[in-house]
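Trying the structure run again after the queue cleared.
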Amino acid sequence: MNPIATIYLANKKVIKIELLPEAAPNTVNSFIYVAKRGIMNGHAIQRIVPENWVDVTYSAFHNDEAKYLIPNEFELNKDIEPLDSHPGCVCMGGYGEAGIASSEFFFPLRDCPEHKGIYPVFGKVLEGMDEIYRLEKVKTRPVTDYPEPGIEVNEPIEPEIIEKVELELFGVEYPDPIRMSAQNLPKCWE
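Done. C-alpha cells:
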C-alpha cells in the first residue's frame, strides 16, 4: 500500500494525497523526511499563480533542515518514466532545467507537459481538490523582493496556514533522501 499524507489546514479543510514511490522514490523520500520532522507544520502557503499552480513554499519552509537539494529523479532512476503533470497531481518544485529539487511541492492547476522529467509527479490528490481550487482564487499580492527575475510570485493577503501534516506509512520505513553533495542553494532560501 502506498503511503498517505494528510495536510490539515488551519481553516479545518484537508488535502489528502497518495504518495507514489514507484513513480519518484527519492522525491517521496524527501517529502516524507520533511513531513516526519514537522517542518511544514504552521507554514503559510507562499505562492499562488492562478490557472497554473498552488506552490506551497519557495523558501524551504524557512527551515534550515529543509535547505538541501536532491538530484534529478530521472537521472537518479533512469528506468522510471516520468508521469504527466496535471490537476490532481502533486509535483516537486525544482531549480532550473536540470530538475534539481528539494522538498518544495506544488499542485498544478492545468496540464503542464513542459514539466515532464523536470518537476517529478510524486503524488496524487485523493481528497481536497475543491480546497486547492479555492486556494487558487484567494486574494493575493505580488511579492516584489523575490530574488529571481521573471518569475511570478503572488502570496495570499490573508495567510493560508498548514496546521500539520500526518503520514500513514503502513509499517514501511522510507530512507532519508539522497542529497547532492555540492550545493549552490537558491537565492530565495536566503
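The chain has a mean pLDDT of 95. Worth checking whether this holds up in the mutant runs.
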